[in-house]
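Working notes for the structural subgroup meeting. M.R. asked for a predicted model of this chain before we commit to crystallization trials. I am recording the input and output together here so anyone reviewing the notebook later can reproduce the run.

Input as submitted:
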Amino acid sequence: MAVGSNDLTPEQLRGLEASALADALAGAKKELFNLRFQSATGQLESHGRLRAVRKDIARIYTEMNERKLGIGREPEAEAEETTKEKVG
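Returned structure, recorded in token form:
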């Protein structure tokens, strides 16, 4: 990971709701576009940031696909299950 970056960890992504994941994806795509634009114009200072943002986008897509396939769970679903286990 790049130093001083705000890379998302898989644990952080698992704690986000679906709408927050979509917002994070949109923000990462926008940042990637800006970085590519800076690279094309010769203004990019940190080429490592391009790689980090691409990896963030891949992590977000992975979490979204895991939830779609039923492998991952929504954060509120996990909270409901723990309360059911305690009660029952």
